[in-house]
Amino acid sequence: MIKTCQTFGETMHTWARYLIFFQYIGTKYRSLKPVNAVSLSVSSRTDTGVHSLSNSAHFDLQRKNKPPFPEDVLVEALNFHLKTEQIRITRAHRVPVDFHARFYAKSRTYVYRIALGISQHSLLPLTDHNLCWNLRNTELDVGAMREAAALLVGTHNFSSFRAVSSDMPFKNPVKTLDVADIQPGSSFAHSHFHRDIPIWELTFRSRSFLYRQVRRMTGALVAVGQGKLSLPQLMGILEAQDSLAYPNNMAAPAHGLFLTRVDYKDSGEEA
């Protein structure tokens, strides 16, 4: 977990690898990139506008003639330098030098929040502004959505549910979706707002996802709930295994999506 090496002039350096957990409101961020020489390996890349309640990353930190930082000191120091940024480090752990935040993850969980009966953003409480997809519909056929979600669970070629990207040729489109669940949620201000806002949460869990896969699955399920897409049509999209088979403008917007959890194998750690 700690490695020391002798360098020119007999100066001793000590370095350690850390796994950090962090959260952010992704509205104004395009990506999380370090501005210094530290190489940060993030477990899950999120689209512009997507949020996280718990993402994770690892990096190596070297100090000159001093032992590695204690985890709590590192968390405090990182948050101090983040200052007013809408990013917070929640905890940190020393990990073995061969640990990798991305490749050691055994599952990732995303939650998509939908608010019903909202014609425009300004009608949402500030606590939910840009943190859910507001729909004019007052109702969705949740039963049909759950039937549709069940069709997506399991191992499939999800090519139709990935957006075109530069790394498409290098990504295996076959993924195993372990969970696709739809449950009632609530506004973050439900106890203090002047009216109830129907909120639904769509939860997806898999070891990994394709580019924009969750947003495309969400958009398709909502279309089913609105009666715009039938179950046979959904199956047709899935079986086409072609990103061009996915209807234009159906994908859910980024601002309703949260990465909520990253679980790791053989380490006992979870984000």
UniProtKB/TrEMBL annotation:
Keyword Isomerase: yes
Lineage: superkingdom: Eukaryota
Amino-acid positions noted as binding substrate in the UniProt annotation, renumbered to this chain: 110
EC number: 5.4.99.12
Alphabetical UniProt keywords: Isomerase, tRNA processing
Catalytic residue positions: 47 (nucleophile)
A GO BP annotation: tRNA pseudouridine synthesis
One Gene Ontology term of the molecular function aspect: tRNA pseudouridine(38-40) synthase activity
Domain Pseudouridine synthase I TruA alpha/beta: start-end pairs: 148-264
InterPro entries: PsdUridine_synth_cat_dom_sf, PsdUridine_synth_TruA, PsdUridine_synth_TruA_a/b_dom, PsdUridine_synth_TruA_C, TruA/RsuA/RluB/E/F_N
SUPFAM superfamilies per record: Pseudouridine synthase
Top EC class of this enzyme: isomerase
Catalytic activity: uridine(38/39/40) in tRNA = pseudouridine(38/39/40) in tRNA
Family: Belongs to the tRNA pseudouridine synthase TruA family.
Protein name: tRNA pseudouridine synthase
Annotated organism of origin: Seriola dumerili
